[in-house]
Design a protein that fits this description.
about 90 residues; alpha+beta; 3 helices; 4 strands
Amino acid sequence: MTKTLAAALFCISLFISPAAYSAEKTITLAVDNMYCAACPITVKGSLEAVPGVMKAVVSYADKTAIVTFDDQKTTPAALMAATAYAGYPSVIKG
């Protein structure tokens, strides 16, 4: 009986893990310093290098980056830091 109860509690704990609360989020960043058609490649690479980023679409024409990420693995602040470190400061576009 004790082993069955322990196994049941273990299985329940798997479903209540913090990963179960993670959510896919998408934000748009306004990106500064993009002055040529090659700049979005650098911005995209810096964003995709951040753990938790699933997709980054960077537009030179709009000077934006649309980023889809796992909010349990990264934050908007980390995304902005990644672009700034690459030489392209960014802010959340409202």
